[in-house]
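User: Predict structure, ligand NAP.
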Amino acid sequence: MNIIITGASKGFGKSLARKFASNGHNVYICSRSAAQLYKTLEELVTEFSEVTIKAMPCDISDKESVKEFADWIAAQKIDVDVLINNAGYFIPGSVYNEPEGVLEEMLAVNLLGAYNLTRKLLPAMMARKSGHIFNMCSIASLQAYANGGAYSISKFAMLGFSKNLREEMKPHNIKVTAVMPGAAYTDSWSGSDVDPKRIMESEDVANMIFAASQLSPTAVVEDIILRPQLGDL
Ligand SMILES: NC(=O)c1ccc[n+]([C@@H]2O[C@H](COP(=O)([O-])OP(=O)(O)OC[C@H]3O[C@@H](n4cnc5c(N)ncnc54)[C@H](OP(=O)(O)O)[C@@H]3O)[C@@H](O)[C@H]2O)c1
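Assistant: Predicted complex:
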């Protein structure tokens, strides 16, 4: 299979790239920082030499950059079997006092990037009547919490996008899965004082997504909800 993963230079995206590549699948990844992306690419290519792994820098929040990434994928002449809309980040804050523009920024990266890339890649998947799209939502898509602010709003919207797409894609034989992880230790937590053992491992999320991609054509996992064993922080 050919797997497209956004935001794969670190964190969940990198764990997903490793999981799919180690199971014999070809992986195409992006992130903003070219330096970190190519470092990760080199690691992956060295470890998994038997599959195709390629990377192209892309800022998913920039429509022109998304177009260039989609054109690059088209130029690979591959069928997209799995698209994982993973790129995103968290700016803590509250609606009443977060800086002007934070909601626009959160929506651009956590929602519009996935929306725009999906719209670029869907026509070919629909013509083939096959494929699987995973949308990285969050526990913050299900439940509001203190300091969630614009991030939580963007993740509720991402779940709304995913639910709509699921309904629309039923007759086109394209699976859609919303992924709602609680806290998992990735680079986004590395600056914090959270004990890595208190929250999930990045690989837990990658393992569940991979498992959901392996079902028969007649079944889809609509929602994946994962939490730390001790519950949310
Ligand atoms: N870790 C958690 O506890 C947790 C829980 C629930 C949901 N999530 C969600 O899971 C996803 C991944 O989070 P993570 O914890 O793995 O984060 P991470 O370790 O910080 O990795 C984020 C990845 O996304 C890339 N990225 C960020 N903004 C981007 C953009 N505009 N365009 C393209 N790539 C971009 C980053 O590279 P560059 O910075 O170089 O672009 C990096 O490769 C996010 O959507 C996040 O909201 C995480």
